[in-house]
């Protein structure tokens, strides 16, 4: 039997010391991803440090506006939080679009950010995968890659980051608070996940042993007009085929500010800065929304089976922005499926 | 037991419902046994190879591991028809995922870890795993499942087709589908004093017993197989599969009871699946849509070990009239696991092609698709030239049209847009054979006033146990709470497997006969009271079944679907499915409805979601769990309704019962695909219809 030790984290410092002191250690959040991967033999930790009892389970308002969300807050609780629902509907909607009610009740914010790709080959130890075993080769590059990346991939890995929540957070300029063996640090979410490059096994810019302690989202008054649109193969309980998180601020007929995040397109939740730039100061028209999406997607390179993601993301960008500017998004956050 | 009376035709909750929801109902690997050991399967990581060497040293050194069974040391098995069952006998790999070793250990965890540590060296050979209609291995099987003629020909198709005013020639493609019952394949096996006891997750424990007897060369009487509760099968447990054989081998090898359950990932292949199918359908009709010629050519795959020939075009032999007709089946022999039964084998994929083609013909002729089907109805089986015991296809279509609100339908495709959605509706017909196989049953009156009825039927979640109890209660004419029913045990009177939608018809007949003869004997010989020692009656229906008149026996149905397609994302959503069925006498409306909507949902799942994604480089499917192999979820259909028309058919069998476990899936995928066409004007002949395929064709904006 492959045994592992289980330790309950009591305070963040102790948890980091435990994990940093053991080469094959992992934090355990809700376990909805890690435990599956352990059963599949993909993750084989010797030590699990349970973080769910750490005092990191609250959502607090920040002095200048904005929120600090503890790393162990459950996805369901975050989605139901009144401030989130009112001030950041994009986040509530993204959370509720993910997984199922049971999974969201278990899943934590930290675990959600650090969940692994759903690439088929990564999850099956009988097939080569550079992310699992550097140098083994990437089975997806010329294989079943319909769900995988169109942006920022490398021939070493074409995986996507599967989270819905992270797409909303990246659009909201979230900052990840981490505690590393060397101390506490803040990393903008846009820089938290790496692109695969030559090292698809290295997924974040955190130091080994780093613990996510919180995610901060700054005040963004116009995010009250924000939304998340996820296209998926079945009506519930399916990862995104493509998704868009959007918030927009109008100055009369012009776009004053806009935020766009794209999901299921890259190894990280994708912040569409080129599209945002293209729209700033421009008339908020459907045509301009389309041109802006095209600007962002100009760099997209489709694999054999995922060219559809380019028109999909373009259409979803246009549609979410049209709905936000026309005020036709349904007011209440949609029910979770 | 709740209601004291349980008349046939009354909605009745499942007898074992409480045990199931409270977790006390025992499934195959929940039976306790002293000294239990656990097994874990090791699967081949290549598609075609000779096994050069199995290195089990590391695995054996793992604490708790008791044994590693391979071709080198596993108990020898005597031949049986399905070579898939001759497990661990030869150093050969016939498909990726084939079980090449079995690790037995003191605990499940040790067995699992041991399995990761077994090293198998292969001498690999090139493999072929992709079905095409030109595959070099294509051949004509001697028969198709279970024993239909491979090809049929009536009239002169070529001439009839050439002469037809309207001609349609299209090819339809469906991928591999994987049976995913809630309970994966699982067995607990125990040898003692030369006897073998197996708790198996099976649709027919009698066949499992006979097969184990042959494989291990012990008399069938020395083998007992139980399947008291089974968490679904959809055909994949309809004949013996690998788990009881492996568990029994392991139990013999370590001389202890052994428990083996496959994981979700492990069942994608080794336990069977629905073959991918390529179907060419040609229809020739006059301008009014009257069919003159029908041809249905089906290509599917089998393995190199065992032949399985999906009877894809068999439905086309029965559904519509036409003087000139031909059906053919060809098989490619590939380096893949053997395909097998999955809910309505043959009729399910066949109906997708035929009922899509009928929709295309309706469009081509400018005729309403319901009217087209009515015009081509027939009162004699078009190939066997027999009358139908009853045929209510038209009644189903008409009743469904009324309930669904078909009358106001504008046939123009792609024109109903509301906001970002395109709306459409579709229809399809359905038929499924109504067989009543021979069965036997025992009915016993006990001195305490209770009755015990036994039959080796299997309840795979359908509600069969409850239906049989209703039938028994009615036949005995006593309150239901005095009747006990026992099923799912090979020691009980033999009966057919839970398959082919035969259960309620065939088993009920046997139960009804046994109960009625008991009642008669009690009345005639004991003046209606029970003798002190009780009275037991055993009967079978062999003579009655043999004496059945020669008529064509089918259940019929009609499916209606309403879908909408998002023009931005290509997402298809099903707003409504409605099915109307003619299935004879319905024993238990509540479980009947559950079977019908289950089948309909599975058809929806086939239309929009399910697909085994083959990676030809590896030779197997890469999506092997329910997160990646999508089956429809509740949210995928907003409203689903199943109805049946009154049907009094005393020629189908004396009880007038037709099965209904499968007809729900026949035609439902076509109804959804036809609705997608009506919504968008795009015809999908390849399933599943996913958003990426729609996005390619939808007009932007
Ligand atoms: C069937 C299924 C469907 C799903 N569908 C969706 C979907 O549609 N959309 C979606 O977004 N998600 C989906 N998910 C994924 C789900 O959101 C994630 O599994 C979940 O968010 C992970 O959170 P967790 O707390 O359970 O993480 P765990 O499984 O506990 O951990 C995941 C990883 O994060 C690490 N980790 C956990 N906490 C911390 C921390 N504080 N600091 C550093 N590292 C940490 C762990 O070591 C591990 O590597 C689905 C999952 C399943 C099983
Ligand atoms: S895409 Fe990445 S995760 Fe998938 S097989 Fe290639 S290397 Fe592995």
From TrEMBL, chain A:
UniProt keyword annotations, A-Z: Oxidoreductase
Domain named FAD-binding PCMH-type: residues: 1-222
Secretion signal span: none
Matches recorded under SUPFAM superfamilies: CO dehydrogenase flavoprotein C-terminal domain-like, FAD-binding/transporter-associated domain-like
Gene3D superfamilies in the record: 3.30.465.10, CO dehydrogenase flavoprotein, C-terminal domain, Uridine Diphospho-n-acetylenolpyruvylglucosamine Reductase, domain 2
PANTHER family: OXIDOREDUCTASE, XANTHINE DEHYDROGENASE SUBUNIT C-RELATED
Identification of the protein by name: Xanthine dehydrogenase family protein subunit M
Organism: Plantactinospora alkalitolerans
Source organism phylogeny: Bacteria, Bacillati, Actinomycetota, Actinomycetes, Micromonosporales
UniProtKB/TrEMBL annotation, chain B:
UniProt keyword Transport present: no
Keyword Oxidoreductase part of the UniProt annotation: yes
InterPro entries in the cross-refs: Ald_Oxase/Xan_DH_a/b, Ald_Oxase/Xan_DH_a/b_sf, Ald_Oxase/xanthine_DH-like, AldOxase/xan_DH_MoCoBD1, AldOxase/xan_DH_MoCoBD2, AldOxase/xan_DH_Mopterin-bd_sf
Domain Aldehyde oxidase/xanthine dehydrogenase a/b hammerhead: 22-126
One Pfam match: Ald_Xan_dh_C
Keyword line: Molybdenum, Oxidoreductase
SUPFAM superfamilies named among the record's database cross-references: CO dehydrogenase molybdoprotein N-domain-like, Molybdenum cofactor-binding domain
Protein name per UniProt: Xanthine dehydrogenase family protein molybdopterin-binding subunit
Species assigned in the record: Plantactinospora alkalitolerans
């Amino acid at each position: 039997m492959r045994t592992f030790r289980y330790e309950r984290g009591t305070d963040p410092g102790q948890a980091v010391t435990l994990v940093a002191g053991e080469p094959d250690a992992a934090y355990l959040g809700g376990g909805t991803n890690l435990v599956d991967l352990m059963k599949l033999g993909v993750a084989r930790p010797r030590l699990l440090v349970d973080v769910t009892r750490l005092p990191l389970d609250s959502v607090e308002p920040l002095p200048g506006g904005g929120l600090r969300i503890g790393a162990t807050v459950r996805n369901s609780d975050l989605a139901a939080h009144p401030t989130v629902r009112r001030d950041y509907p994009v986040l509530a909607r993204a959370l509720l679009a993910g997984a199922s009610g049971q999974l969201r009740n278990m899943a934590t914010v930290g675990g959600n950010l650090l969940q692994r790709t759903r690439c088929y080959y990564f999850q099956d130890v009988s097939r080569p995968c550079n992310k699992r075993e550097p140098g083994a080769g990437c089975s997806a590059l010329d294989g079943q890659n319909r769900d995988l990346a169109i942006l920022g991939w490398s021939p070493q890995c074409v995986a996507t980051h599967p989270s819905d929540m992270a797409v909303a957070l990246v659009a909201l300029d979230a900052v990840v608070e981490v505690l590393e063996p060397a101390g506490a640090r803040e990393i903008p979410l846009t820089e938290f996940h790496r692109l695969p490059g030559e090292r698809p096994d290295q997924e974040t810019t955190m130091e080994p042993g780093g613990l996510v302690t919180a995610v901060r989202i700054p005040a963004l008054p116009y995010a009250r007009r924000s939304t998340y649109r996820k296209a998926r193969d079945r009506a519930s309980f399916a990862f995104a085929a493509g998704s868009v998180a959007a918030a927009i601020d109008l100055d009369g007929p012009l776009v004053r500010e806009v935020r766009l995040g794209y999901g299921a397109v890259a190894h990280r939740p994708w912040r569409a800065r080129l599209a945002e730039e293209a729209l700033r100061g421009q008339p908020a028209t459907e045509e301009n929304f389309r041109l802006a999406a095209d600007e962002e997607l100009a760099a997209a390179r489709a694999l054999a089976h995922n060219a559809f993601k380019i028109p999909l993301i373009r259409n979803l960008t246009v549609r979410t922005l049209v709905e936000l500017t026309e005020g036709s998004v349904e007011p209440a956050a949609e029910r979770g499926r | 037991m709740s209601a004291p009376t349980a008349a046939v035709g009354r909605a009745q909750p499942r007898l074992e419902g409480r045990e199931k929801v409270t977790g006390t109902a025992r499934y195959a690997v929940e039976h306790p046994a002293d000294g239990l050991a656990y097994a874990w399967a090791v699967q081949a990581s290549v598609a075609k190879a000779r096994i050069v060497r199995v290195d089990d040293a590391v695995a054996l050194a793992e604490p708790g591991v008791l044994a590693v069974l391979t071709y080198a040391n596993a108990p020898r098995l005597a031949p049986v028809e399905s070579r898939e069952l001759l497990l661990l006998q030869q150093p050969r790999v016939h498909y990726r995922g084939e079980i090449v070793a079995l690790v037995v250990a003191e605990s499940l965890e040790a067995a699992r870890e041991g399995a990761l540590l077994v090293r198998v060296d292969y001498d690999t050979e090139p493999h072929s795993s992709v079905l095409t209609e030109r595959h070099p291995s294509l051949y004509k099987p001697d028969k198709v499942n279970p024993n239909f003629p491979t090809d049929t020909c009536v009239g002169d198709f070529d001439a009839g087709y050439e002469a037809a005013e309207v001609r349609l020639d299209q090819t339809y493609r469906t991928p591999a589908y994987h049976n995913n019952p809630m309970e994966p394949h699982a067995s607990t096996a125990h040898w003692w004093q030369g006897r073998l006891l197996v708790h198996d997750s099976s649709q027919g424990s009698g066949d499992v017993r006979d097969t184990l007897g042959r494989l291990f060369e012990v008399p069938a009487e020395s083998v007992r197989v139980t399947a008291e509760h089974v968490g679904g099968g959809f055909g994949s447990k309809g004949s013996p599969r690998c788990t009881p054989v492996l568990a029994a081998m392991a139990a013999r090898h370590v001389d202890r009871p052994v428990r083996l359950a496959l994981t979700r990932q492990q069942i994608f292949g080794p336990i069977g699946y629905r073959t991918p199918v390529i179907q060419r359908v040609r229809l020739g009709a006059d301008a009014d849509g009257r069919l003159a010629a029908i041809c249905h050519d089906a290509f599917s795959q089998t393995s190199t070990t065992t032949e399985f020939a999906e009877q894809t075009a068999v439905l086309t032999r029965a559904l519509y009239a036409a003087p000139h007709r031909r059906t053919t089946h060809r098989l490619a022999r590939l380096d893949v696991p053997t395909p097998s039964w999955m809910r309505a084998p043959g009729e399910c994929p066949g109906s997708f092609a035929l009922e899509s083609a009928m929709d295309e013909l309706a469009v081509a002729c400018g005729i309403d698709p319901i009217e087209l089907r009515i015009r081509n109805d027939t009162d004699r089986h078009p190939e066997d030239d027999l009358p139908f015991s009853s045929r209510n296809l038209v009644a189903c279509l008409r009743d469904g049209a009324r309930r669904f609100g078909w009358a106001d339908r504008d046939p123009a495709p792609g024109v109903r847009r509301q906001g970002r959605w395109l709306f459409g509706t579709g229809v399809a017909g359905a038929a499924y054979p109504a067989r009543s196989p021979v069965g036997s049953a025992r009915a016993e009156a006990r001195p305490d006033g209770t009755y015990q009825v036994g039959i080796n039927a299997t309840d795979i979640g359908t509600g069969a146990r409850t239906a049989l109890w209703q039938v028994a209660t009615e036949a005995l004419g006593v309150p239901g709470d005095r009747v006990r029913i026992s099923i799912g045990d090979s020691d009980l009177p033999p009966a057919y497997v839970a398959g082919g939608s035969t259960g309620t018809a065939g088993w009920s007949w046997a139960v009804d006969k046994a109960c009625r003869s008991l009642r008669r004997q009690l009345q005639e010989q004991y003046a209606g009271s029970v003798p002190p020692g009780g009275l037991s009656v055993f009967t079978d229906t062999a003579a009655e079944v043999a004496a059945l008149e020669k008529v064509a026996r089918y259940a019929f149905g009609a499916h209606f679907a309403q879908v909408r397609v998002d023009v931005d994302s290509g997402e298809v959503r099903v707003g409504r499915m409605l099915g109307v069925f003619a299935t004879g006498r319905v024993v238990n409306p509540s479980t009947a409805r559950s079977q019908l909507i289950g089948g309909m949902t599975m058809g929806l799942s086939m239309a929009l979601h399910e697909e085994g994604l083959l990676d030809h480089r590896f030779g197997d499917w890469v999506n092997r769990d329910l997160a990646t192999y999508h089956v429809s979820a509740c949210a995928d259909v907003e409203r689903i309704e199943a109805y049946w028309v009154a049907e009094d058919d005393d020629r189908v069998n004396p009880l007038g019962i037709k099965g209904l476990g499968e007809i729900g899936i026949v035609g439902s995928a076509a109804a959804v695909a036809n609705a997608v066409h009506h919504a968008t004007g795009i015809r999908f002949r390849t399933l599943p219809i996913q958003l990426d395929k729609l996005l390619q064709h939808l007009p932007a904006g």
